[in-house]
Amino acid sequence: MTRIKKSFVVVGMAASLAVAFAAGTLVNAPGTTAQAQVNGGNPAHHHGREHHSVIRRGMHLLKRAVKVLSHGAHDFGGHRVQAIDLTKQAIEQLHAAMQFDHH
Predict the structure, then answer these.
(1) How far is Cα 22 from Cα 94, in angstroms, rounded to an integer?
(2) Shortest CA distance to 91 belongs to which of 75, 67, 74?
(3) Number of Cβ atoms within 10 Å of the Cβ of 80
(4) So where are the chain's domains?
């Protein structure tokens, strides 16, 4: 498998994981889980910084994928550039998910 194909696989997997993690975090937004209700609707009360550790890890992996893909010489008919753009959008969505959870 060529390096660029491996990069596409990494981006696909990272994006899938990031979206899955974000969806799980948003589904379990403050006040919706039993633990959050016990903590007065404040899940950060028992999670602290680790509350967003999964999203932060997903963002890190996506940023790494953008770096890898950015070094590709072949554009694959614009698909590599589109993958980079969509990965950056995924990073923005994860950042927005963390900001949403702070409110």
Answers:
(1) 6
(2) 67
(3) 19
(4) 3-101
Percent of the chain topping pLDDT 70: 51
CA 65 to chain centre: 12
Cα-based distances in Å from 93 to 4, 29, 59: 25, 15, 10
Helix, coil or strand: residue 34: helix
Separation of alpha carbons 23 and 8, rounded Å:
22
pLDDT: which is higher, 27 or 89: 89
Length of the chain: 103
Q: Can you give the pTM of this predicted structure? A: 0.55
Element (H, E) at 57: helix 53-70
Is 80 exceeded by the pLDDT of residue 85? yes
Q: What is the pLDDT of residue 95?
A: 94
Buried b (16+ CB within 10 A) or exposed e, 24-47: ebeeeebeeeeebeebeeebeeee
